[in-house]
């Protein structure tokens, strides 16, 4: 009786494992098998990859101590390189991440110049009008640009951000400003 039960257990174990394997194989086949039914035309599904790299002159940090009103206090030039396989566009956002601004509201301002080096996609438009920087810690969205795919050899967009002390600002001599320029992938 003991050997018979042992044989039944082994037989049931083998049947259970076989059933499990058949179920997993069937589910896997169903998961990876795609078909089109009816009168639909074939559709091409394109998978593309894109890559952004950013090159800063020196680094991405901006640090400013007290300065005279109307003075240019920082200049940062950076280049964004875009590489795309396929026909999709690659959109990016440039931010000014302010970690410390003890200057008063709108005592600091910035301008942006842009260059579409290979005339690909769209750069953030040049803005020579001075844009106010609020006091405190915050993230300022400078703008969004895009590279139009395909770009198999890569292309570049170049930007220069200039920070000034606003004309007529009453600046605290202990005021300080710290920020970093960042570039992130963005949705439309």
Summarize the structure.
By secondary structure, the protein is of the alpha+beta class. Helices cover 16% and strands 48% of the residues. The protein is elongated.
* Fraction of residues in helix: 10-25%
Distance between the termini: 73 Å
Summarize the helix and strand pattern as letters. HEEEEEEEEE
**Beta content:** over 45%
Going across the major beta sheet, what is the strand order?
Answer: 1-3-8-5-6
Kindly report the average pLDDT value: 85
Q: Class in CATH?
A: Mainly Beta
- Measured on Cα atoms, how large is the radius of gyration? 29 Å
Q: Characterize the overall form.
A: elongated
Could you explain how this protein is built, in words?
There is one protein chain. The protein is α+β, with helices and mostly antiparallel strands and 188 residues long. It has a single domain (49-185), classed as Jelly Rolls, CATH 2.60.120. Helices cover 16% and strands 48% of the residues. The strands form two sheets. Strands 1-3-8-5-6 form a five-stranded antiparallel sheet, with no helix packed on it. A four-stranded antiparallel sheet has the order 2-9-4-7, with no helix packed on it. The protein is elongated. The model is unreliable at 28-36 (pLDDT under 50).
